[in-house]
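Sample entry (90 residues):
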Amino acid sequence: MITEAEEIELALTGHRHSEECLLAEVGWRHYGTTIDLSFNDIREGDRIRPEILDRPRPVTVRAYLVQELKLANAITEAMAREPESLDISA
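Predicted structure, serialized as tokens:
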């Protein structure tokens, strides 16, 4: 019998374990107890897709009975000062 953790692992395997993706949307559902995390899968094989923003490839993960969600972003001070210099397609 497959466990929930193994099922999640199998799903992520098809998306390179979400190693490189952009969090595009966070949506609360069902009275705030269910959350959808929608990611834009940016890779194709071993390369970053050049059209990642023009033609997103969304992958949504839904979690039930969520009590808390913490998000952190590793933006440096330099990135915050010059956000236009960020180029995820490089």
